[in-house]
Amino acid sequence: MYKYIWCKINIFQIISNNISYPLLSGLIFPDKSKLAFQGNFYMVLLNKRHMKEVSDSPVQYRYGIVGRIFGITKNKYKKRPAGITESFEYKYTTSRLLYYVIGMFTIVIARILWKFRVEGKENLPKNMHCIFMPNHLSHLDSFAVNIPLYPSRPVHFIADEKLFKNPIFRKLAPHLNVFPVRKGAKQLSVVEYSINLVKRGNTLLWYPEGQRHKQPWLNKCNPGKLGSGWLATATNVPVIPVFLRGPEKAMPVGKSITWGRRFRSIEILVKYGKPVYLDDLRQLPPSKEVSKMAVDRIMSAIEELRAEVDARETNNQPKTT
Fold first, then answer.
1. pTM of the predicted structure, to 2 decimals
2. Cβ neighbourhood burial of 115 (10 Å; 0-12, 13-18, 19+)
3. Residue 180: what pLDDT?
4. Which of left, alpha, beta for 32 (phi over 0: left; psi -120 to 50: alpha)?
């Protein structure tokens, strides 16, 4: 009897998630009905008995075909239940209406809470077909980079898959150009998807550090990731370094949003730099060494922007006698 009831509940969940929601989504977003499954599939996977197991590190077998047949591996790898990045459908289309409406609402709220200072917009290409690579300090970094660009061109950007556990965010994200990535995992599929996304004429925001800096008071960036260098050299578009300062105060790591003692008491600086020169590296065959040189140039460009800001702030400080 209990098994029959449990089976009925599972059938009801699958029907409601994969039929009812797509129909409603098709009425609101005409070209999104086939995409509605992407956010709800993870809810079905919450039952651990139906979860697949995956590994973040590639498996290396010994003895060729014999090792593959008998499962003899070189490296030890840990398996984990499949998460959002494995169940997320990366083929989606932006809802421009929803993007502009939510963007307008976000900008109004953000400018009430914080004071924004934008520099270097003259360095941006006119068609906005580029890759933005900022330093990563807070969950607000993506909004800080996008707010000065609104509404010229929608920007695609990555987000930690933990944010997709929120059902509201998970349903809105595909319509707002947000796709998940697992922090600390070497997900080549996400980099490949991002490369194809840029080659199709889209604008991308990518964090070369890979994750937020847990100690922003050190005033330096984390080392860049090889995947960022691969992305930069595989796409023939300008790479714009961006320096951010202030989001770490508006939303510190592990804490909620704050606006300080009063509204607009926290200043958020967004400084766009000149495109990073990578043409010589793009002519070389792809390799780890080329990716390393590319990401080092990007991180150096971000640090140069930091040095300019620090020097200006030092000169503007009142001299004490």
1. 0.72
2. middle
3. 84
4. alpha
Most confident of 61-65, 78-82, 222-226: 222-226
The span from the CA of 18 to the CA of 41, in Å, is: 8
pLDDT band at residue 244 under the 50/70/90 scheme? very high
Q: Is residue 91 part of a domain?
A: no
Average pLDDT (237-248) is 94
Compute the 3-state secondary structure of the chain and give helix, strand, coil in percent, each to the nearest 5.
50, 15, 35
Q: Which two tokens stand for residue 3?
A: 């098994």
Buried b (16+ CB within 10 A) or exposed e, 130-151: bbbbbbbbbbbbbbbbbbbbbe
Cβ atoms of residues 156 and 177 within 8 Å: yes
From the centroid of its chain, how far is CA 254?
Answer: 18
Domain around 304: 96-316
Q: What is the rounded radius of gyration, in angstroms, for the C-alpha atoms of the chain?
A: 22
297 and 242 within one domain:
yes
Per residue in 38-57, pLDDT (tens digit) is 333 333 333 333 334 545 45
Q: Which two tokens stand for residue 229?
A: 């260098």
- The domain boundary, picked from 40, 58, 86, lies at 86
Q: What is the C-alpha to C-alpha distance for residues 294 and 275, in angstroms, rounded to an integer?
A: 12
The string over 236-270, giving b where at least 16 C-beta atoms fall within 10 Å of a residue's C-beta and e elsewhere, is ebbbbbbbbbbbbbbbbeeeeeebeeeeeebebbb
Pairing of strands 53-55, 79-81: antiparallel
Lookup: tokens for 298 = 């990007």
Specify if 321 maps to a domain. no
CA-based angle 8:13:18, to the nearest 5?
130
CATH number (domain holding residue 166): 3.40.1130.10
Which of 55, 86, 117 corresponds to the end of one domain?
86
More confident residue, 81 or 117: 117
pLDDT top residue among 249 and 92? 249
pLDDT at position 126 over 50: yes
Torsional class of 201: left (φ above 0), alpha (ψ -120 to 50), beta (otherwise): left
